[in-house]
Design goal:
By secondary structure, the chain is of the alpha+beta class. It has a single domain, classed as Glutaredoxin. The protein contains 3 helices and 6 strands; from the N terminus they run βαβααββββ. Strands 2-1-3-4 form a 4-stranded mixed sheet. Strands 5-6 form a two-stranded antiparallel ribbon. Strand 3 and strand 4 form a beta hairpin. About 30% of the residues are buried.
């Protein structure tokens, strides 16, 4: 079993780039497509705690029912925000990566580099053409 887990949405470029960076380090992570296999409440709360972020910071706005559910309303508490994410998993921002070195919301995708146990094994260019890792395996 892999020591790395990615909560992944294959339709998201940032998520695809993050997965590719993990693989570029020589690891094959456990991939959880959280829109097909929703994250349970206990796991989601643990991920938020492990990332050291506020629940609100995990909400995705673009391409979600965020506005129609009025989730920008500051009077909503964490439990209400988690309830919304449980009902509409698309509201959970991605990708979330868990490794022995930490848990992180990897936006931008190169944020994963700080928590990968292994160094990059070669160059890496994001889908948009941005060079992230040079031919010597160093972050650009």
């Amino acid at each position: 079993m892999s020591q790395i887990t990615i909560y992944h949405n294959p339709q998201c470029g940032t998520s695809r780039n993050t997965l590719a960076l993990i693989r570029n380090s020589g690891e094959e992570p456990t991939i959880i497509e959280y829109l097909k296999t929703p994250i349970d409440r206990v796991t989601l709360l643990r991920l938020v705690k492990d990332m050291g972020i506020e629940v609100r910071a995990l909400l995705r706005i673009k391409g979600t029912p965020y506005e129609e559910l009025e989730l920008g309303n500051e009077s909503l508490n964490d439990e209400q925000l988690i309830d919304a994410m449980m009902e509409h998993p698309i509201l959970i921002n991605r990708p979330i990566v868990v490794t022995p070195l930490g848990t992180r919301l990897c936006r931008p995708s190169e944020a994963v580099l700080d928590i990968l146990p292994q160094a990059q094994r070669g160059s890496f260019v994001k889908e948009d053409g941005q060079v992230v890792i040079d031919e010597h395996g160093r972050k650009v």
